[in-house]
Amino acid sequence: MTKLRFTKMQALGNDFIVIDAMSQTVALSSDQIRQLSNRRLGIGCDQVLLAERPQRPDTDIRYRVFNADGGEVEHCGNGVRCLARFLHEKALLEQHELRVETRNGLTLVHLCDDGAIAVNMGPPVLEPERIPFRPTKQASEYALALEDKRIMIGAVSMGNPHAVLQVDDIDSAPIDTFGPLIMEHADFPQRVNVGFMQVISRDRIRLRVYERGAGETPACGTGACAAVVSGRLRGLLDARVKVNLPGGELMIYWDGGDTSVWMTGPALTVYEGEIRL
Ligand SMILES: N[C@@H](CCC[C@H](N)C(=O)O)C(=O)O
């Protein structure tokens, strides 16, 4: 039997089990991730995050992200803010600027004096083959065949893949039906996170996200970035946008082109413990 120390954290209700994999040996199978994430059989969370020693010399920490379904993925916007908070609270890293190694790149995180955490998420990836999305010419919107319907989506990678639908009202949007269908759509070979975006004004949207490997969550950081990028590309939004998610608010800034997307929001510790596996 293995004992594992963990910290339970949340960012706008998107919740995480954060594990220091530097001071303890951690080798979790997909089954164990599913068990930890299960809200009855384990601790319960949307994602498990591992803080590991960096492999790249130009970074301070490596973080790995596992969805509640056990699959490892590339990135997590709310998760990277929780990771930064965790490292500071544990005095594992003390600087206010952190260079975080992700599965496919480098993310810069800044702990602000007012308690918020700002993340430079890097430029969005829009080339379909890099999202990855079915081979096609890059566009701001694509038609997607969904059973007998044809819907319009934006497709963006923020390190992880996102489809963004514009809806009139997120309260009545078909999240539970369209969410799983689009997530598993054959045009997205790695599956996809699905955002439902309601544009309120050029600087405010409402958003719900059906996450790959976790289902609908109260908030999704990379989803908020992808929605603003998609809204900008469709000519609907300005550069600075307040994103209202069911769990709270994120500020997203994107100046277009190859510039980085910035995300600012909270991250909090809930409790700490030890679990037997
Ligand atoms: N909650 C996250 C995204 C977590 C990963 C995602 N479900 C995926 O599979 O890519 C966020 O805040 O960005």
Automatic annotation (TrEMBL):
<feature type="binding site">
    <location>
        <begin position="221"/>
        <end position="222"/>
    </location>
    <ligand>
        <name>substrate</name>
    </ligand>
</feature>
<feature type="active site">
    <location>
        <position position="76"/>
    </location>
</feature>
<comment type="function">
    <text>Catalyzes the stereoinversion of LL-2,6-diaminopimelate (L,L-DAP) to meso-diaminopimelate (meso-DAP), a precursor of L-lysine and an essential component of the bacterial peptidoglycan.</text>
</comment>
<dbReference type="GO" id="GO:0009089">
    <property type="term" value="P:lysine biosynthetic process via diaminopimelate"/>
</dbReference>
<protein>
    <recommendedName>
        <fullName>Diaminopimelate epimerase</fullName>
        <ecNumber>5.1.1.7</ecNumber>
    </recommendedName>
</protein>
<feature type="binding site">
    <location>
        <begin position="77"/>
        <end position="78"/>
    </location>
    <ligand>
        <name>substrate</name>
    </ligand>
</feature>
<feature type="binding site">
    <location>
        <begin position="211"/>
        <end position="212"/>
    </location>
    <ligand>
        <name>substrate</name>
    </ligand>
</feature>
<feature type="binding site">
    <location>
        <position position="193"/>
    </location>
    <ligand>
        <name>substrate</name>
    </ligand>
</feature>
<feature type="site" description="Important for dimerization">
    <location>
        <position position="271"/>
    </location>
</feature>
<dbReference type="GO" id="GO:0005829">
    <property type="term" value="C:cytosol"/>
</dbReference>
<dbReference type="InterPro" id="IPR001653">
    <property type="entry name" value="DAP_epimerase_DapF"/>
</dbReference>
<dbReference type="GO" id="GO:0008837">
    <property type="term" value="F:diaminopimelate epimerase activity"/>
</dbReference>
<keyword id="KW-0413">Isomerase</keyword>
<feature type="site" description="Could be important to modulate the pK values of the two catalytic cysteine residues">
    <location>
        <position position="162"/>
    </location>
</feature>
<keyword id="KW-0028">Amino-acid biosynthesis</keyword>
<feature type="binding site">
    <location>
        <position position="14"/>
    </location>
    <ligand>
        <name>substrate</name>
    </ligand>
</feature>
<comment type="subunit">
    <text>Homodimer.</text>
</comment>
<keyword id="KW-0457">Lysine biosynthesis</keyword>
<dbReference type="Pfam" id="PF01678">
    <property type="entry name" value="DAP_epimerase"/>
</dbReference>
<feature type="active site" description="Proton acceptor">
    <location>
        <position position="220"/>
    </location>
</feature>
<dbReference type="InterPro" id="IPR018510">
    <property type="entry name" value="DAP_epimerase_AS"/>
</dbReference>
<keyword id="KW-0963">Cytoplasm</keyword>
<feature type="active site" description="Proton donor">
    <location>
        <position position="76"/>
    </location>
</feature>
<feature type="site" description="Could be important to modulate the pK values of the two catalytic cysteine residues">
    <location>
        <position position="211"/>
    </location>
</feature>
<feature type="binding site">
    <location>
        <position position="47"/>
    </location>
    <ligand>
        <name>substrate</name>
    </ligand>
</feature>
<comment type="similarity">
    <text>Belongs to the diaminopimelate epimerase family.</text>
</comment>
<feature type="binding site">
    <location>
        <position position="67"/>
    </location>
    <ligand>
        <name>substrate</name>
    </ligand>
</feature>
<comment type="pathway">
    <text>Amino-acid biosynthesis; L-lysine biosynthesis via DAP pathway; DL-2,6-diaminopimelate from LL-2,6-diaminopimelate: step 1/1.</text>
</comment>
<feature type="binding site">
    <location>
        <position position="160"/>
    </location>
    <ligand>
        <name>substrate</name>
    </ligand>
</feature>
